[in-house]
Write a structure and sequence with these properties.
ThiS/MoaD-like, Beta-grasp_dom_sf, Mopterin_synth/thiamin_S_b, MoaD/ThiS family protein
Amino acid sequence: MQLEVSVPLLISDCTKGKTRFPLEAGTLAEALRTLVETYPLLKVHLYNEQGEVREHVLLYYNDDNIAWLDDLDIPIRPGDKLRVLQAVSGG
């Protein structure tokens, strides 16, 4: 099934300049693996050395932060979206 992925312009150099693109995957877990396999430079921006999502990165599957999900083996459905967001702090 096809999932629409969006990434911030700031890291689009890791996705060949694309900020929106389709990704084929059967589940959300597979989509996350495929994302970093297809665009390996993204892995450094999304995950720390322990393989956990970095603190300043938010990954949203439709309206849910994936950190809130109990399981990532969710089947992809038509119209599903994965958004990569970077939290900004400071003053």
